[in-house]
Amino acid sequence: MKIRTFSKYGEWGRKRIQHLYQRLFHKENVPHHEYGLGENDWERSYESGKWDFLNRPEQLAHYSVIIGYITYYKHHGAVLDVGCGEGILLGRMCSCSYSRYVGIDVSETAIDKALEKKAEKCNFVKTSIQDYKCEEKFDVIVLNEVLYYLENPLQILQHCEAFLKDDGILIVSMYCSEETSELWKKIESVYAPLDETRISNRLNTSWVCKVYRSSNGQYSISAERSQ
Ligand SMILES: C[S@@+](CC[C@H](N)C(=O)[O-])C[C@H]1O[C@@H](n2cnc3c(N)ncnc32)[C@H](O)[C@@H]1O
Question: For residue 207, how far is its CA from the centre of ligand 1 (angstroms)?
Answer without folding.
Answer: 16
